[in-house]
Amino acid sequence: AGVDYAAPPRNGPQAADVAAAAAMSDAERSQMIAGMVDGLEAQLLDSGGTAAEWAQLLTALGVLKQTDRARAVWAKAQTALAGNTVGLDLVRTAAKTAGIAE
Prior knowledge:
The protein has helices at about 15-20, 25-45, 50-65, 65-80, 85-95. It has about 100 residues and is mostly helical.
């Protein structure tokens, strides 16, 4: 229709990031992952985000076994997504997977 369409930027690692991570030591890879999780958390706490982003953060914190931090994020997500029942259901599922919600 004469309109240039560009897909919105993806969150998360790009192909080059994944390739670089393969060459890292375990400690370097862990540090990179922690930085990505910290960055996502800072973004969500500062300016909010989508339910999918909150769920992604909760899932990551569950994998990292950072349950206290995940509980705090779950509380913030509930406030940020108040009134968005579909979004809250998505985030609740991630909170259950992380072991912090019933």
